[in-house]
Amino acid sequence: MKDDVYLYNHARWEALAEANALFTRPKLDLDKKTARDYLGLDRLGVDGDLSGKTVLCLASGGGQQSAAFALLGALVSVFDISPSQLERDKAAAEHYGVRIDLYQGDMRDLSCFDADSFDIVWHPYSLTFVPDSRVVFHEVSRVLKAGGLYHLMCANPFFSGVTHKDWNGDGYTLKHPYEDEAVTSYPDQEWVYDQSKSPVKIQEPREYRQTLSRVMNGLIKEGFLLAYFSEIKSNDTESLPGSWGHFANIAPPWIEFIWYNYPNILKQI
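RESULT FIELD:
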């Protein structure tokens, strides 16, 4: 599915990897305890032994979450659009002496995996990189076992496309229409990569707004049951207006879910 969406995301993440952006740096200092803490499993209410569990790190290249799950004994697969990001996962696997299986492609097409392949699908921030979240949810439901766990982190739909740079002296200005697939873009934050040292000019992120109703109803339609929901904010009460810390305290930029997959649940109601 190498459409314009694919080509843009592929080029951008290859460039981010070349620039050593924050999300492209493997986690090479983990042990079992810090791996569990890094993933936030206790905070998210994910209990039990992960040994032997099949985990898909979806659009999650970079050698971070994959390494943590592998250290906890899971059987890990990583699916990502960027070959360079997958190289980071390979490096992390070699560093820890664990196995991580690598797959390159677009999250809208998981046909390389059989149905009911995974106990856990772990999906960090990337949902807004594609126009229609429902396509992704359908693919996740197919590859996730019945009763399996789907962790999803995505943009808070109400503030998608807004950053601290939108401070107008009194508040943060909403400018983009609140509608599905509205295209948003913004400059990368200073902490994403060292822009003064970037070897290439990196295109700004191109994201597609996903309204909360589409996200929630799309998952419900696929048979997912919600087990955890959180709005992620900075809790930074000291930063000045117009700074990232202040913005992220006023307008939580991200939301996080735990869903469980029960594909036939709607037929039983």
